[in-house]
Amino acid sequence: LFQMAADSTASSIKEKAEELLPALKEELGSEADGVNDDNLLKFLYWKQDLRRASDRFRHHIKWRKEHSYAFDDTPLFASKDPELKRVLESEVLVAPEGLVCKEGSTVVIGRLRNNDMADGRTATSVARMFFYTIDRILERDSTKFHGMTIFHDLTGLSRNNVDPAIPKLVFKGVFGTFPIHIKAVYIMNPPWFFYSLFKIVSLMWPKKLRSRVHFMDGLDDIYKVIDKDSLLEEHGGKRAHDTIKWVESQMAKEESGSIDSLYYCLPNTTKE
Q1: CA-CA distance, 152 to 188, in Å (whole number)?
Q2: Which of the residues in the chain have pLDDT under 70?
Q3: What pLDDT score does 272 carry?
Q4: What is the pLDDT of residue 158?
Q5: Sheet containing 213-216, strands listed edge to edge, beginning at the edge strand earlier in sequence
Q6: How far apart, in whole angstroms, are the C-alpha atoms of residue 109 and residue 65?
């Protein structure tokens, strides 16, 4: 039943977005020069509303120009940035192919205990890792049509894994600029100090998102929204995920030109 409902929703969204695409191009005019249909459609999949989709596209471009570190000073490709590749491979954030909630949204798993701020990484490099991961999952139908669910496993988190600048960079970048629905955030096993940090950080979040954050003491609650067998082995599932191979596969797509990235939404970033 979940799958039938998800398929019906996706079909309806896709049909309406494709119907609105010519009007979006007309509304954006020269702002959309060089932007392919796949990227423009991401904004219409997010909202099947011409005004809101065009506003989100413009906000994305404005944010990119004002915060060029995110996508553009060094292109947001693992094949172009060794530091991005290194941070991706540390498995702070993973998005295994095919891992979705029961209602269809893409699942992203966070393990902040792997975020070793003593190894030379910076808040900026970690934020770029977040942006890259979201950019990659926006290539998936499960994200385009059903959004993203975040499962943060905070087991083993210490203060050495946390830099208050990271959430500021990430949330300022994602909220209001990326064409993505955040369906829910599940936080498991947070240490005592996390609650005060979360209280401060979440003040900058929209009220609607704050209502979608759920704290959990164990895995039983997550099994209600994500099929147990589909989860990683460490969470009681049967899924094996090789992050090194995943990064290699993304780099191969980048080098072949088959990557479908928001990077190409900005003028002068068209594919060769």
Answers
A1: 6
A2: 1-7, 269-272
A3: 53
A4: 94
A5: 93-94, 106-110, 148-153, 182-188, 213-216
A6: 29
107 C-beta neighbours (distance < 10 Å), count:
26
User: What's this model's pTM, rounded to 2 decimal places?
Assistant: 0.94
90: number of CA atoms within 13 Å, CB side? 23
Distance from C-alpha of 201 to C-alpha of 17, rounded to nearest angstrom: 34
Q: Which two tokens stand for residue 222?
A: 């997550």
Contact 254, 77 (CB under 8 A): yes
Residue labelled with tokens 């393990």 = 111
> What is the reported pLDDT for 59?
97
Is 99:148 a contact under the CB 8 Å cutoff? no
To which residue do tokens 């991706």 refer?
A: 88
d(CA 118, CA 161): 8
pLDDT reported for residue 228: 96
Residue count of the chain, please give it: 272
Quote the Cα angle for 125-127-130, to 5°: 115
